[in-house]
Design goal:
The chain has helices at residues 52-60, 67-94. With 96 residues, it is mostly helical.
Length: 96
């Protein structure tokens, strides 16, 4: 079982909002390693905090969280971010 990223890029376009990732942000809040196709240009060497599998194995599995629950929560967080971004963009377009 694993979580499947759909490469929307929203999480990587808002790394400035995550304290552990701020050092990866350009001036606009986008990860400096996000390429034009919403893919990580350093994927094979990405920081551990960007690796969902690593986070599960090192933080959640040891305390008894099931993979299924972890990936469900990961998807919830992803969906929440996506919805927030879409709402923000819609609001900005209304005021433009």
């Amino acid at each position: 079982m694993s979580w499947k990223c759909d490469c929307c890029g929203h999480c990587c376009r808002h790394v400035d909002k995550v304290p552990a990732l701020r050092e990866l942000a350009n001036d606009d809040g986008v990860c400096k390693y996000l390429d034009s196709e919403n893919k990580c240009s350093i994927y094979d060497h990405r920081p551990a905090v960007c690796n969902v599998r690593w986070i599960y194995e090192h933080f959640f599995k040891p305390v008894g969280v099931s993979e299924e629950d972890f990936y469900a929560k990961t998807q919830e967080a992803c969906d929440k971010l996506r919805n927030e971004v879409i709402s923000e963009e819609a609001s900005e377009n209304e005021h433009a």
